Amino acid sequence: MKFFFKIVILFLIMFNFRVPGFYNSAFVAMVICTFYYIGNRKAIPLTYLFQRYSAIILIATVLLAFYIVLIVFFHQSGDVMITREKRTWVMFMMLGATVYVMPLLVEGKESTAFEELALIICYAFALQGALDLAAVLYTPLGDFFIKLKPEDALLIEDDSELGNRFRLCNLSGTRLVELTASFGVSFIVFFMIQVKYNNPLMTGWKKYFIFAFIFLGTMFAGRTGFIGFLVGLGGWLIFSYNRIFRFLIRNLKYIIGFTALLLFIFYGIFTPKQRESFTDGVFPFAFEWYYNYRDYGKFEVGSAEATPMHYFYLYDKTLLSGEGADAWNGSKYPHSDAGYMNTLVLGGIPFLLVLIIYQLLYFVRPVEAALNNKSIREPAKDWISIVFFGLLCLYIFIIEIKASMVGYLHVIEVMYLALGSSYLIQYYTRKESGELTG
User: What is the pTM of this model?
Assistant: First the structure.
C-alpha cells in the first residue's frame, strides 16, 4: 500500500496536471507530503531535504533562468520570457517539489533507494498508460482528461497538423512530443531494472503488464518515446547479449500467454467501435513506419522525414550570441521545432554550452559514486549503473534533435534528479553501514 502511495506522489509531480481548486497536482502532492511528515516526524529522514547534489541542481536551475533573462535583456526581446524563462521556473518548482518528497519516496528503503525509485518511475508510467487506455476506450473519461489540460492545449484537439484526439487522452499537463519523450526515459529505466535487479515487483506477469502499459502510453502519446525503447534495449543487450537464448526459453510461456491475452482482449472484449479506433487511428499513427512500408515499400515516418526541414543555416553573429528569441517565436529565422536550432537562435553556442553543462550536473556525481561503489562481495565498479546513467544522458541529447528538451522539459529532469538523488542516498547509506569499501 505504501509503495502505491509513493507511485501516486511521484505521478502527481511528474505529470503535473491541472486540479480545479488546487492549482495543479504537484501542489496537491506537496500538501499530502506535508501532512505525512507532520504525522511521521520521527520516522522520516528529513536530512535528505538538504542533500548537496539536489541543492547544486536547484541553484543551477535558478542561474539558468537568470541567464535566459540576461539573453533577453541583451537582445531586448521580451517575448521569449513567455516561453523559455517561464518553463525554466516551472521546472525549478517541479524539481523543488521532487526534493521535498524524496524523504517519503525512499522511506524504509534507504539502502535500496535507487532500485525503489526506478520501480516507482516504471509503475507511474504504467499507471499513465493504463489511464490513457481507459480514456481512449471510454469517451467521457477522455473528455474529462482533455478539460484538465491548459487552455492552449485545448486548441490542439481540432488541429489536424498536430495529431489525433487520442494523444490528449492522458492525465498529464505535459503532452504530445514532450510526453512521449518522457515515456522513453521509463523504457530505459525498465531495461536497467531487468539487468540490475530481480525485484518481485518486476518479475513474471507483473513485468509484462508494466511493459505493456508503458508501451501503450507511448503509442498514444507519440513515437519519440520509442527511441528510448531502442536505447534501453541497447543497454540491456550490452549486458545480456550472451543470455538471449536463455531469456527466450525462460520467458517463452509468458510471451505466448501474454500475446494470447492481448489478442483475446482486443478481439473478444473490445467493441467494434473500440477496435476501429485502434486500427484506423492509433496503429497507423504509432506504427507509421510499418504502414508506409506495407503500402509504399519505404520505412518512413512523417515527423522524422520533416526534421531536416527544421534545420537551416545560421549567421555567424547568431552562433556567437543568438537572436534573443526562439526559432518558433519571433526570430528572423524560419519556424523550427528542433531543440538545437532553438537553443542556438536564442543564445548561440554559449547558451548551448551552458545547457550541456547544466544537464551533465545531473549525472556527474552519481557516476562518480558508481565508480567508487565497491562492496566486499562485489569488488567491481557498478558498471550497470554507469552505463545506464550514460544512456539516460545520451537519450535527452538525442531527442533534443526533435524538440527542446535539455533544461526545458521538467518531466525528464524530475526523473533524472530523483534517480541521481536516490543513487547517492543508497551509496552513502551503504557506505555508513560498512557495506562498501570504495
Answer: 0.90
* pLDDT for 306: 67
Cell of 234: 541497447
CA–CA distance, 218 with 229 (Å, rounded to integer): 10
Residue 290 lies in a domain: no
- Please give the grid coordinates belonging to residue 315: 549567421
**Residue of 53, 59, 60, 64 lying closest to 88 (CA atoms):** 64
Residue 127 lies in a domain: yes
**Domain range holding 21?**
2-269+301-432
Question: How confident is the model at residue 250, as a pLDDT?
Answer: 80
Distances (CA, A) of 207 to 146, 250, 254, 419: 30, 13, 10, 20
Number of domains in the chain: 1
Say if strands 18-19 and 23-24 run parallel, antiparallel, or are unpaired: antiparallel
Q: Where are the alpha helices (H) located in 265-338, listed in sequence order? A: 272-277, 283-286, 288-296, 302-306, 316-321
**Per-residue pLDDT tens for 226-245?**
999 999 999 999 888 777 77
Q: Which amino acid is at 7?
A: I
Query: Which stretch of DSSP H or E encloses residue 204?
Result: helix 204-221
**In the predicted model, is pLDDT for residue 160 greater than 70?**
no
Burial class of residue 274 (count of CB atoms within 10 Å of its CB; 0-12, 13-18, 19+): middle
DSSP letters for 168-191: G-SS-SS-HHHHHHHHHHHHHHHH
Identify whether 323 is part of a domain.
yes
d(CA 384, CA 115): 12
Single-letter amino acid, residue 220:
F
- The closest alpha carbon to 310, from 287, 326, 324, belongs to 326
* Domain-embedded: residue 282: no
